[in-house]
Amino acid sequence: MPALVHADEQHRGSEQLGTAPADVVALAGREVACKHWLSVEITDQESDSRVEHALSHLRCDALAADAAALRTKYGQSDSTLKALDAARALGP
Length: 92
Prior knowledge:
mainly alpha, 5 helices, 0% strand, elongated
């Protein structure tokens, strides 16, 4: 995807998150951070440990379940569901 298109999608996503509930904004932050750490190149044991610690601390393995729980919680709010979609699109 061209960088300008990606930047535009991130901008729209961050606009939608501006009015989202705090738990949705927090999930978006985790999405971005997890995507970052998943893209870090592992070059040695130290970087492997650092990445593993970050992924564990962020609970990246629970993102899908946490997003599903928020979709259930906010199922009647179209704007919040759109913000959850935007959260998934954020990140590198």
